[in-house]
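A quick aside before the break. I want you to see a complete sequence-to-structure record at least once, exactly as it would be stored in a machine-readable document. Don't worry about memorizing anything.
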Amino acid sequence: KGARGGAPPERKQQDLLDLLSSLVEGLPCWKAPSGKGRPAHVWKYRESGDTLRPAGAFVGLKNQGATCYMNAVLQQMFSVKPFRDAMLKAGFGDSPIVVEEREPSEEDEGKASESNDKDGEIDEAKVKAEEELKKAREDDKALRELRLVFAHLHGSDRMSYDARSFCENFRWPGGRPVVMSEQQDAQEFLSRVIDLIHERRKSLKYPNAPENIFQGVLSNQTISLETTHESEREEGFSSLSLAVNNKANLLEALDLYVKGETLDANNKVRMEGCPRRVTAVKRACIKKAPPVIVLHLKRFFTDF
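That is the input. The structure line, written in tokens, reads:
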């Protein structure tokens, strides 16, 4: 009891919330008229049978059929606090999208007049600008929905969030929509999300770079075993694919990853500055590790 024999503050707060809930449920806007406007469940924040999320528990994501690969990746990305915070603060979808149309240069006009197809080239430029604008809008919708997913995972009092709208707006490379009844590769989905964030961030010139949290640099090396010649090519990466078959732990899988392969016999290589083909080792090493490294475990393999 309280100091004067009344109910404890927690009880009073709960009674007040119950009273507000009962008042709101009686409002016309709480349920849409049958057959008009939105379905009734859209207007109700807590659907029939919903239970509140216990304190300290995580919010789940509803499976849309075969989107478990997507849900698993989104939950893991959300669990990385620097990435989560950066995405929640990002401005994707908050500003009007404008794609600058490139004015035909004098060189373009000269070529157009020579071919008597000036109007055709201008029309082609406009079509390209319209396509870029459409893609930018689609990408922004997907990223805005991704921010909504993170916002609900962060602050919802429901047990789970229905990310159907994100699935409907997300696009694979080439503009392919998500088929929710088809299973896809989790690593490909992760790479696509990171690429999508990177492309839009560069276009919008945002200084904040959420995707850099997962971005590292690989050194692709070719080392001659017969001479002192070596070559190196840098390449960015957002995840490492490790073969784990018959490996006791991740260290053994990482050792295999950097071990590389020997190029000999008919596979000998000719290196810059070397007059003949030589036996060499071709491998990839981590030159710069990202703040958070993603390891893709290749548990399955084909044997035929």
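Two observations worth writing down. Confidence is low (pLDDT under 50) at residues 27-45, 96-102. The CA atoms of residues 264 and 279 lie 5 Å apart. We'll return to this after the break.
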